[in-house]
Amino acid sequence: MGEVELSCRAYVKMYLHACLFPRCSINGLLLSSSPTGGAVCVTDCVPLLHSHLPLAPITQLALTQVDVWCSQTQQRIVGYYQANACVSDNSPTPCALKIADKIAEQFDNAVLLMLDGSKMSPDYRVPPIVMYERKDSRWILKDKHTIMLRQWEETRAIASQMMESGDHTLLVDFDSHLDDITKDWTNQKLNTKIEELASPANGNI
Amino acid sequence: MASVAEMYDVGWEEMRDKLRKWREDNCRNSEQIVDVGEELISEHASKLGDDIWIIYEQVMIAALDCSRDDLALTCLQELRKQFPDSHRVKRLTGMRLEALERYDEANKHYDAILQDDPTNTAARKRKISILKAQGKSTEAIRELNEYLEQFVGDQEAWHELSELYINEHDYGKAAFCLEELMMINPHNHLYCEQYAEVKYTQGGLENLELSRKYFAQALRLNNRNMRALFGLYMSASHIAASPKVSAKVKKDNMKYAAWAATQINRAYKLSWSICTQYSEILKSPLFA
Hints:
heterodimer, A: alpha/beta, Cytidine Deaminase, domain 2, 6-stranded mixed β-sheet, 9 strands, B: mainly alpha, Serine Threonine Protein Phosphatase 5, Tetratricopeptide repeat, 15 helices, flat
Protein backbone atom coordinates (compact mmCIF):
# COMPACT_ATOMS: atom_id res chain seq x y z
CA MET A 1 0.00 0.00 0.00
CA GLY A 2 1.02 3.65 0.33
CA GLU A 3 3.94 5.26 2.05
CA VAL A 4 3.66 6.74 5.51
CA GLU A 5 5.89 9.46 6.85
CA LEU A 6 6.16 10.11 10.56
CA SER A 7 7.22 13.62 11.58
CA CYS A 8 9.60 14.46 14.39
CA ARG A 9 6.86 16.20 16.34
CA ALA A 10 4.49 13.21 16.15
CA TYR A 11 7.16 10.70 17.12
CA VAL A 12 8.58 12.73 20.01
CA LYS A 13 5.17 13.34 21.56
CA MET A 14 4.21 9.64 21.31
CA TYR A 15 7.53 8.71 22.87
CA LEU A 16 7.14 11.24 25.70
CA HIS A 17 3.57 10.03 26.30
CA ALA A 18 4.86 6.48 26.77
CA CYS A 19 7.65 7.74 29.05
CA LEU A 20 5.26 9.75 31.18
CA PHE A 21 3.14 6.69 31.98
CA PRO A 22 5.52 3.73 31.85
CA ARG A 23 3.27 1.51 33.94
CA CYS A 24 0.08 2.08 31.94
CA SER A 25 -1.24 1.32 28.51
CA ILE A 26 -1.48 4.58 26.59
CA ASN A 27 -3.07 5.60 23.33
CA GLY A 28 -3.60 8.56 21.07
CA LEU A 29 -4.55 9.80 17.64
CA LEU A 30 -2.29 10.49 14.66
CA LEU A 31 -3.01 13.64 12.67
CA SER A 32 -2.03 15.03 9.31
CA SER A 33 -2.05 18.58 8.04
CA SER A 34 -0.99 17.61 4.53
CA PRO A 35 -3.43 17.29 1.63
CA THR A 36 -4.62 13.79 0.82
CA GLY A 37 -3.19 11.77 -2.03
CA GLY A 38 0.26 10.29 -2.19
CA ALA A 39 2.08 9.48 1.00
CA VAL A 40 0.35 9.86 4.34
CA CYS A 41 2.27 12.43 6.37
CA VAL A 42 1.66 12.13 10.07
CA THR A 43 2.51 15.64 11.17
CA ASP A 44 1.19 15.62 14.71
CA CYS A 45 -0.44 13.45 17.35
CA VAL A 46 -2.87 13.93 20.23
CA PRO A 47 -2.17 11.79 23.32
CA LEU A 48 -5.48 10.50 24.67
CA LEU A 49 -5.62 8.08 27.56
CA HIS A 50 -3.52 6.32 30.15
CA SER A 51 -6.31 4.47 31.95
CA HIS A 52 -9.31 2.31 31.02
CA LEU A 53 -8.56 2.34 27.32
CA PRO A 54 -11.39 -0.06 26.44
CA LEU A 55 -14.11 2.09 28.04
CA ALA A 56 -16.26 4.01 25.59
CA PRO A 57 -17.39 7.38 26.98
CA ILE A 58 -14.07 9.22 27.23
CA THR A 59 -12.77 7.76 23.97
CA GLN A 60 -15.92 8.91 22.15
CA LEU A 61 -15.65 12.33 23.76
CA ALA A 62 -11.99 12.67 22.81
CA LEU A 63 -12.61 11.59 19.21
CA THR A 64 -15.35 14.22 18.90
CA GLN A 65 -13.26 17.00 20.42
CA VAL A 66 -10.18 16.19 18.34
CA ASP A 67 -12.37 16.02 15.22
CA VAL A 68 -13.69 19.52 15.92
CA TRP A 69 -10.19 20.85 16.58
CA CYS A 70 -8.94 19.27 13.36
CA SER A 71 -11.63 20.89 11.26
CA GLN A 72 -10.70 24.25 12.80
CA THR A 73 -6.99 23.77 12.11
CA GLN A 74 -7.05 22.11 8.67
CA GLN A 75 -5.88 18.76 9.99
CA ARG A 76 -7.41 15.33 9.83
CA ILE A 77 -7.24 12.17 11.92
CA VAL A 78 -5.24 9.63 9.94
CA GLY A 79 -4.34 7.01 12.50
CA TYR A 80 -4.14 5.69 16.01
CA TYR A 81 -1.27 4.73 18.30
CA GLN A 82 -1.04 2.59 21.40
CA ALA A 83 1.61 1.31 23.76
CA ASN A 84 0.72 -1.64 26.00
CA ALA A 85 1.58 -1.68 29.69
CA CYS A 86 3.01 -5.16 29.25
CA VAL A 87 6.32 -4.43 27.54
CA SER A 88 6.70 -7.88 26.03
CA ASP A 89 3.39 -7.72 24.19
CA ASN A 90 3.02 -5.15 21.44
CA SER A 91 0.12 -6.69 19.58
CA PRO A 92 -2.96 -4.52 18.94
CA THR A 93 -5.71 -5.07 21.50
CA PRO A 94 -9.38 -5.40 20.49
CA CYS A 95 -10.01 -1.80 21.51
CA ALA A 96 -7.09 -0.64 19.35
CA LEU A 97 -8.57 -2.44 16.35
CA LYS A 98 -12.00 -1.01 17.07
CA ILE A 99 -10.82 2.59 17.22
CA ALA A 100 -8.59 2.13 14.19
CA ASP A 101 -11.57 0.68 12.28
CA LYS A 102 -13.58 3.78 13.14
CA ILE A 103 -10.82 6.02 11.86
CA ALA A 104 -10.52 3.95 8.69
CA GLU A 105 -14.22 4.58 8.00
CA GLN A 106 -13.36 8.24 7.53
CA PHE A 107 -9.90 7.88 6.01
CA ASP A 108 -8.99 5.07 3.65
CA ASN A 109 -5.26 4.96 4.30
CA ALA A 110 -5.52 5.02 8.09
CA VAL A 111 -2.61 3.55 10.03
CA LEU A 112 -2.45 1.71 13.33
CA LEU A 113 0.81 2.19 15.17
CA MET A 114 1.96 0.12 18.14
CA LEU A 115 4.91 1.31 20.19
CA ASP A 116 7.24 -1.53 21.01
CA GLY A 117 8.14 -1.08 24.66
CA SER A 118 10.92 -3.64 24.56
CA LYS A 119 12.83 -1.51 22.03
CA MET A 120 12.59 1.77 23.93
CA SER A 121 15.75 1.41 26.00
CA PRO A 122 18.25 4.32 25.87
CA ASP A 123 20.57 2.53 23.46
CA TYR A 124 17.96 1.58 20.88
CA ARG A 125 18.88 2.33 17.30
CA VAL A 126 15.73 1.47 15.36
CA PRO A 127 12.39 3.24 15.71
CA PRO A 128 10.45 1.21 18.30
CA ILE A 129 7.29 1.15 16.23
CA VAL A 130 5.21 -1.45 14.45
CA MET A 131 2.72 -0.18 11.87
CA TYR A 132 -0.39 -1.81 10.49
CA GLU A 133 -2.53 -0.90 7.50
CA ARG A 134 -6.03 -1.93 6.50
CA LYS A 135 -6.49 -4.46 3.74
CA ASP A 136 -9.70 -6.44 3.10
CA SER A 137 -11.18 -5.43 6.47
CA ARG A 138 -8.15 -6.72 8.34
CA TRP A 139 -5.17 -4.96 9.84
CA ILE A 140 -1.93 -6.35 8.47
CA LEU A 141 1.69 -5.49 9.13
CA LYS A 142 2.99 -2.73 6.95
CA ASP A 143 6.13 -3.26 4.93
CA LYS A 144 8.93 -1.51 6.86
CA HIS A 145 10.26 0.04 3.68
CA THR A 146 7.10 2.07 3.21
CA ILE A 147 7.55 3.79 6.59
CA MET A 148 9.70 6.90 6.62
CA LEU A 149 11.14 8.88 9.47
CA ARG A 150 13.16 11.75 8.10
CA GLN A 151 16.25 12.59 10.13
CA TRP A 152 15.69 9.64 12.46
CA GLU A 153 18.95 10.23 14.35
CA GLU A 154 18.01 13.82 15.14
CA THR A 155 14.48 12.81 16.10
CA ARG A 156 15.79 10.10 18.39
CA ALA A 157 18.26 12.55 19.95
CA ILE A 158 15.54 15.13 20.55
CA ALA A 159 13.26 12.53 22.16
CA SER A 160 16.02 11.32 24.49
CA GLN A 161 17.12 14.81 25.37
CA MET A 162 13.61 15.92 26.25
CA MET A 163 13.04 12.86 28.39
CA GLU A 164 16.33 13.35 30.25
CA SER A 165 15.49 16.96 31.01
CA GLY A 166 12.08 15.95 32.33
CA ASP A 167 10.08 17.56 29.51
CA HIS A 168 7.79 14.54 29.36
CA THR A 169 6.14 15.91 32.50
CA LEU A 170 4.95 18.86 30.39
CA LEU A 171 2.94 16.57 28.14
CA VAL A 172 -0.83 16.69 28.58
CA ASP A 173 -3.05 13.86 27.42
CA PHE A 174 -6.84 13.94 27.30
CA ASP A 175 -7.05 12.04 30.59
CA SER A 176 -4.93 14.69 32.33
CA HIS A 177 -6.98 17.43 30.71
CA LEU A 178 -10.14 15.99 32.27
CA ASP A 179 -8.42 15.99 35.67
CA ASP A 180 -7.57 19.67 35.18
CA ILE A 181 -9.24 21.42 32.27
CA THR A 182 -6.79 24.31 32.29
CA LYS A 183 -4.24 21.89 30.79
CA ASP A 184 -3.87 22.02 27.02
CA TRP A 185 -4.20 18.65 25.23
CA THR A 186 -2.98 20.20 21.98
CA ASN A 187 0.39 20.62 23.76
CA GLN A 188 1.33 23.93 22.10
CA LYS A 189 4.15 24.55 24.59
CA LEU A 190 5.69 21.17 23.93
CA ASN A 191 5.35 21.67 20.16
CA THR A 192 7.30 24.91 20.45
CA LYS A 193 10.05 23.20 22.43
CA ILE A 194 10.33 20.46 19.84
CA GLU A 195 10.50 23.03 17.02
CA GLU A 196 13.29 24.85 18.82
CA LEU A 197 15.32 21.69 19.26
CA ALA A 198 14.73 20.65 15.65
CA SER A 199 15.51 24.04 14.10
CA PRO A 200 18.55 24.51 11.85
CA ALA A 201 20.05 26.93 14.39
CA ASN A 202 20.59 23.95 16.67
CA GLY A 203 22.68 22.15 14.14
CA ASN A 204 19.80 19.96 12.95
CA ILE A 205 18.10 20.40 9.61
CA MET B 1 24.69 17.48 40.50
CA ALA B 2 22.65 19.45 43.02
CA SER B 3 21.18 17.54 45.93
CA VAL B 4 17.43 17.44 46.55
CA ALA B 5 17.96 19.53 49.68
CA GLU B 6 19.73 22.21 47.65
CA MET B 7 17.34 22.17 44.71
CA TYR B 8 14.18 22.51 46.78
CA ASP B 9 15.70 24.27 49.78
CA VAL B 10 14.42 21.71 52.28
CA GLY B 11 15.88 20.16 55.40
CA TRP B 12 15.98 16.49 56.28
CA GLU B 13 12.83 16.73 58.42
CA GLU B 14 10.79 18.02 55.47
CA MET B 15 12.16 15.23 53.29
CA ARG B 16 11.21 12.68 55.93
CA ASP B 17 7.70 14.17 56.27
CA LYS B 18 7.26 14.21 52.49
CA LEU B 19 8.10 10.50 52.38
CA ARG B 20 5.57 9.85 55.12
CA LYS B 21 2.86 11.74 53.23
CA TRP B 22 3.58 9.75 50.07
CA ARG B 23 3.39 6.53 52.13
CA GLU B 24 0.05 7.50 53.64
CA ASP B 25 -1.40 8.55 50.28
CA ASN B 26 -0.01 5.43 48.62
CA CYS B 27 1.50 7.50 45.80
CA ARG B 28 3.46 5.73 43.09
CA ASN B 29 5.80 8.65 42.35
CA SER B 30 8.75 6.29 42.45
CA GLU B 31 11.31 8.56 40.77
CA GLN B 32 10.70 11.27 43.39
CA ILE B 33 10.75 8.77 46.27
CA VAL B 34 14.08 7.43 45.04
CA ASP B 35 15.58 10.92 44.75
CA VAL B 36 14.45 12.07 48.19
CA GLY B 37 14.82 8.73 49.96
CA GLU B 38 18.29 7.93 48.65
CA GLU B 39 19.61 11.28 49.85
CA LEU B 40 17.86 10.97 53.19
CA ILE B 41 19.27 7.50 53.80
CA SER B 42 22.81 8.24 52.74
CA GLU B 43 23.17 11.56 54.58
CA HIS B 44 20.76 11.58 57.49
CA ALA B 45 20.31 7.94 58.47
CA SER B 46 21.39 8.47 62.06
CA LYS B 47 18.74 11.15 62.63
CA LEU B 48 15.82 9.06 61.45
CA GLY B 49 15.58 6.72 64.43
CA ASP B 50 13.21 3.80 63.98
CA ASP B 51 11.60 5.51 60.99
CA ILE B 52 14.54 4.34 58.94
CA TRP B 53 13.20 0.81 58.55
CA ILE B 54 9.91 1.83 56.99
CA ILE B 55 11.81 4.30 54.84
CA TYR B 56 14.15 1.52 53.66
CA GLU B 57 11.07 -0.48 52.67
CA GLN B 58 9.45 2.44 50.86
CA VAL B 59 12.64 3.39 49.02
CA MET B 60 13.35 -0.22 48.12
CA ILE B 61 9.98 -0.68 46.43
CA ALA B 62 10.37 2.66 44.62
CA ALA B 63 13.87 1.67 43.53
CA LEU B 64 12.52 -1.56 42.02
CA ASP B 65 9.96 0.52 40.14
CA CYS B 66 12.78 2.59 38.63
CA SER B 67 15.10 -0.34 37.83
CA ARG B 68 17.55 0.83 40.50
CA ASP B 69 18.53 -2.65 41.66
CA ASP B 70 21.68 -1.31 43.32
CA LEU B 71 19.66 0.88 45.67
CA ALA B 72 16.99 -1.78 46.18
CA LEU B 73 19.60 -4.34 47.20
CA THR B 74 21.24 -1.93 49.67
CA CYS B 75 17.90 -1.27 51.37
CA LEU B 76 16.99 -4.96 51.35
CA GLN B 77 20.27 -5.98 52.94
CA GLU B 78 19.81 -3.48 55.78
CA LEU B 79 16.30 -4.80 56.39
CA ARG B 80 17.47 -8.43 56.31
CA LYS B 81 20.16 -7.69 58.89
CA GLN B 82 17.66 -6.03 61.22
CA PHE B 83 14.71 -8.41 60.73
CA PRO B 84 16.22 -11.78 59.74
CA ASP B 85 13.10 -13.94 60.06
CA SER B 86 10.47 -11.47 58.97
CA HIS B 87 7.78 -12.46 56.45
CA ARG B 88 7.49 -8.82 55.51
CA VAL B 89 11.15 -8.73 54.47
CA LYS B 90 10.80 -12.09 52.73
CA ARG B 91 8.04 -10.57 50.63
CA LEU B 92 10.41 -7.73 49.69
CA THR B 93 13.00 -10.30 48.64
CA GLY B 94 10.33 -11.85 46.45
CA MET B 95 9.47 -8.47 44.94
CA ARG B 96 13.09 -7.91 43.98
CA LEU B 97 13.14 -11.29 42.24
CA GLU B 98 9.95 -10.28 40.41
CA ALA B 99 11.62 -7.07 39.25
CA LEU B 100 14.47 -9.19 37.90
CA GLU B 101 11.83 -11.38 36.20
CA ARG B 102 12.97 -14.42 38.19
CA TYR B 103 9.35 -15.39 38.76
CA ASP B 104 9.88 -19.03 39.73
CA GLU B 105 12.25 -18.07 42.54
CA ALA B 106 9.89 -15.31 43.65
CA ASN B 107 7.00 -17.77 43.78
CA LYS B 108 9.11 -20.11 45.95
CA HIS B 109 9.58 -17.31 48.48
CA TYR B 110 5.86 -16.55 48.56
CA ASP B 111 4.95 -20.23 48.85
CA ALA B 112 7.32 -20.51 51.82
CA ILE B 113 5.59 -17.58 53.52
CA LEU B 114 2.16 -19.10 52.85
CA GLN B 115 3.22 -22.48 54.24
CA ASP B 116 4.19 -20.74 57.45
CA ASP B 117 1.21 -18.41 57.47
CA PRO B 118 -1.67 -19.31 55.12
CA THR B 119 -3.49 -16.05 55.89
CA ASN B 120 -0.67 -13.86 54.61
CA THR B 121 -2.56 -11.68 52.14
CA ALA B 122 0.53 -9.84 50.89
CA ALA B 123 2.15 -13.04 49.61
CA ARG B 124 -1.05 -14.16 47.90
CA LYS B 125 -1.41 -10.83 46.16
CA ARG B 126 2.20 -10.93 44.97
CA LYS B 127 1.57 -14.35 43.40
CA ILE B 128 -1.39 -12.87 41.55
CA SER B 129 0.79 -9.94 40.41
CA ILE B 130 3.24 -12.43 38.94
CA LEU B 131 0.46 -14.02 36.89
CA LYS B 132 -0.51 -10.56 35.66
CA ALA B 133 3.09 -9.69 34.76
CA GLN B 134 3.37 -12.92 32.80
CA GLY B 135 0.25 -12.01 30.82
CA LYS B 136 -1.73 -14.88 32.36
CA SER B 137 -4.90 -12.82 32.80
CA THR B 138 -7.30 -15.76 33.06
CA GLU B 139 -5.34 -17.35 35.90
CA ALA B 140 -4.86 -14.00 37.62
CA ILE B 141 -8.62 -13.42 37.47
CA ARG B 142 -9.34 -16.90 38.83
CA GLU B 143 -6.88 -16.55 41.72
CA LEU B 144 -8.13 -13.07 42.56
CA ASN B 145 -11.72 -14.34 42.65
CA GLU B 146 -10.70 -17.10 45.06
CA TYR B 147 -8.84 -14.58 47.19
CA LEU B 148 -11.88 -12.29 47.35
CA GLU B 149 -14.12 -15.15 48.49
CA GLN B 150 -12.01 -15.18 51.64
CA PHE B 151 -11.19 -11.50 51.96
CA VAL B 152 -14.44 -9.86 50.87
CA GLY B 153 -13.62 -6.38 52.14
CA ASP B 154 -10.33 -5.89 50.31
CA GLN B 155 -11.03 -2.79 48.20
CA GLU B 156 -7.67 -2.82 46.48
CA ALA B 157 -8.31 -6.37 45.30
CA TRP B 158 -11.82 -5.62 44.04
CA HIS B 159 -10.46 -2.67 42.11
CA GLU B 160 -7.65 -4.72 40.62
CA LEU B 161 -10.18 -7.35 39.57
CA SER B 162 -12.38 -4.72 37.92
CA GLU B 163 -9.36 -3.51 35.93
CA LEU B 164 -8.53 -7.05 34.83
CA TYR B 165 -12.12 -7.62 33.69
CA ILE B 166 -12.18 -4.29 31.81
CA ASN B 167 -9.01 -5.30 29.94
CA GLU B 168 -10.66 -8.61 29.04
CA HIS B 169 -13.74 -6.68 27.86
CA ASP B 170 -15.88 -8.56 30.40
CA TYR B 171 -17.89 -5.51 31.36
CA GLY B 172 -20.63 -7.37 33.22
CA LYS B 173 -18.16 -8.78 35.74
CA ALA B 174 -16.26 -5.48 35.93
CA ALA B 175 -19.56 -3.82 36.84
CA PHE B 176 -20.11 -6.40 39.58
CA CYS B 177 -16.71 -5.59 41.13
CA LEU B 178 -17.48 -1.87 41.03
CA GLU B 179 -20.85 -2.55 42.68
CA GLU B 180 -18.99 -4.25 45.55
CA LEU B 181 -16.68 -1.24 45.79
CA MET B 182 -19.60 1.19 45.84
CA MET B 183 -21.20 -0.82 48.66
CA ILE B 184 -18.00 -0.75 50.71
CA ASN B 185 -17.37 2.90 49.91
CA PRO B 186 -20.59 4.71 48.97
CA HIS B 187 -19.04 8.18 49.10
CA ASN B 188 -16.31 7.54 46.57
CA HIS B 189 -17.24 9.48 43.43
CA LEU B 190 -14.59 7.72 41.35
CA TYR B 191 -16.20 4.29 41.79
CA CYS B 192 -19.61 5.70 40.75
CA GLU B 193 -18.11 7.33 37.72
CA GLN B 194 -16.17 4.22 36.66
CA TYR B 195 -19.29 2.10 37.12
CA ALA B 196 -21.19 4.55 34.91
CA GLU B 197 -18.46 4.31 32.24
CA VAL B 198 -18.66 0.52 32.26
CA LYS B 199 -22.45 0.59 31.94
CA TYR B 200 -22.19 3.10 29.08
CA THR B 201 -19.70 0.84 27.33
CA GLN B 202 -22.02 -2.16 27.72
CA GLY B 203 -24.62 -0.19 25.78
CA GLY B 204 -28.34 -0.70 25.33
CA LEU B 205 -31.06 1.52 26.70
CA GLU B 206 -31.22 0.05 30.20
CA ASN B 207 -27.47 0.32 30.69
CA LEU B 208 -27.44 3.87 29.33
CA GLU B 209 -30.10 4.90 31.85
CA LEU B 210 -28.11 3.30 34.66
CA SER B 211 -24.97 5.00 33.46
CA ARG B 212 -26.72 8.37 33.44
CA LYS B 213 -27.93 7.81 36.99
CA TYR B 214 -24.48 6.92 38.22
CA PHE B 215 -22.79 9.81 36.41
CA ALA B 216 -25.32 12.02 38.20
CA GLN B 217 -24.53 10.33 41.51
CA ALA B 218 -20.80 10.88 40.97
CA LEU B 219 -21.53 14.57 40.38
CA ARG B 220 -23.55 14.75 43.58
CA LEU B 221 -20.55 13.39 45.44
CA ASN B 222 -18.09 15.65 43.62
CA ASN B 223 -19.47 18.41 41.45
CA ARG B 224 -16.09 19.02 39.85
CA ASN B 225 -15.75 15.57 38.29
CA MET B 226 -15.52 16.51 34.60
CA ARG B 227 -15.71 12.92 33.38
CA ALA B 228 -19.01 12.54 35.21
CA LEU B 229 -20.30 15.79 33.73
CA PHE B 230 -19.39 14.80 30.18
CA GLY B 231 -20.71 11.30 30.85
CA LEU B 232 -24.04 12.71 32.00
CA TYR B 233 -24.26 14.83 28.87
CA MET B 234 -23.42 11.95 26.55
CA SER B 235 -25.64 9.32 28.18
CA ALA B 236 -28.62 11.68 28.41
CA SER B 237 -28.15 12.75 24.78
CA HIS B 238 -28.02 9.14 23.59
CA ILE B 239 -31.19 8.25 25.54
CA ALA B 240 -33.02 11.28 24.17
CA ALA B 241 -32.00 10.31 20.64
CA SER B 242 -33.21 6.71 21.01
CA PRO B 243 -36.37 5.85 19.02
CA LYS B 244 -37.46 3.44 21.78
CA VAL B 245 -38.17 5.99 24.52
CA SER B 246 -41.42 7.71 25.38
CA ALA B 247 -41.89 11.42 24.73
CA LYS B 248 -41.59 12.15 28.44
CA VAL B 249 -38.30 10.26 28.82
CA LYS B 250 -37.01 12.04 25.72
CA LYS B 251 -37.95 15.44 27.15
CA ASP B 252 -36.43 14.68 30.56
CA ASN B 253 -33.15 13.52 29.10
CA MET B 254 -32.91 16.52 26.82
CA LYS B 255 -33.25 18.64 29.93
CA TYR B 256 -30.47 16.72 31.69
CA ALA B 257 -28.22 17.00 28.65
CA ALA B 258 -28.89 20.73 28.33
CA TRP B 259 -28.09 21.24 32.00
CA ALA B 260 -24.87 19.28 31.67
CA ALA B 261 -23.88 21.26 28.57
CA THR B 262 -24.37 24.55 30.44
CA GLN B 263 -22.24 23.31 33.34
CA ILE B 264 -19.52 22.17 30.95
CA ASN B 265 -19.44 25.51 29.15
CA ARG B 266 -19.35 27.33 32.47
CA ALA B 267 -16.48 25.18 33.73
CA TYR B 268 -14.42 25.83 30.59
CA LYS B 269 -15.12 29.57 30.62
CA LEU B 270 -14.08 29.74 34.26
CA SER B 271 -10.94 27.70 33.79
CA TRP B 272 -9.72 29.72 30.80
CA SER B 273 -10.44 32.96 32.62
CA ILE B 274 -8.31 31.69 35.50
CA CYS B 275 -5.56 30.92 33.01
CA THR B 276 -5.74 34.42 31.54
CA GLN B 277 -5.87 36.02 34.97
CA TYR B 278 -2.84 34.04 36.05
CA SER B 279 -0.88 35.00 32.98
CA GLU B 280 -1.88 38.62 33.48
CA ILE B 281 -0.64 38.50 37.07
CA LEU B 282 2.66 37.10 35.94
CA LYS B 283 3.13 40.05 33.57
CA SER B 284 2.85 42.58 36.39
CA PRO B 285 5.99 44.40 37.65
CA LEU B 286 5.83 42.52 40.97
CA PHE B 287 7.17 39.42 39.26
CA ALA B 288 9.84 41.17 37.19
